[in-house]
Amino acid sequence: MTETAPSLPVLYSFRRCPYAMRTRLTLKYSQISVELREVKLSQKPNDLLALSAKGTVPVLALTDGSVLDESLDIIQWALSKRDLDNWKLAGQPRFCKDAIELITQNDGKFKNNLDRYKYADRYPDYPAIYYRQAGERFIQELDHRLSIHPYLVCEQLSIADIAVLPFVRQFAHVDRNWFFNSEHKNVINWTLKLMETPLFQFIMKKQKPWNSGDEPTVF
User: Fold this and answer.
1) d(CA 102, CA 107)
2) Residue 187: helix, strand or coil by DSSP?
3) Helix or strand or coil: residue 107?
């Protein structure tokens, strides 16, 4: 039987949630072990709601009693502990500023259009293709960036790639046939390359939904 050390942080997550996905990527990269509690969003556990009234994932309960319930806060916390490949682009202020601005675009306007594209039946003012074309403007920007260098802000993988990838993946999966046959070849290649990495493959392993009293799952 696997036993979890008392000092292990607890992560509430959902495998296919883009915010939780980028959190798991960073925690695994930073070699930070956590007790993983996979959440079924239709049946959110009381333990999660007691930690964060928002009831969204990811939520990380630290061993000092503090709680982080925003993915970027968890990412920054993890990278402050260990960032061997300099995902934060320390010492490169221009690239760092660019990464932050790109993530802001992703989490704002692009995510808004993505939600409406994926769940177009909930937003009947416009057809799905309207929202797809609106989101596609961000995809076009990414494609241009990737025509200049192999990653989104520079020659190396950074926090920008990790933070944006799960949302581009979700955008792609709304209509896989359209996306993977589109003109956005640089984004397609970048997406496939990152999704095929051992890191991404590891964090996407299917987990059984957690229930109170379950044996801990160490991630």
Assistant:
1) 9
2) helix
3) helix
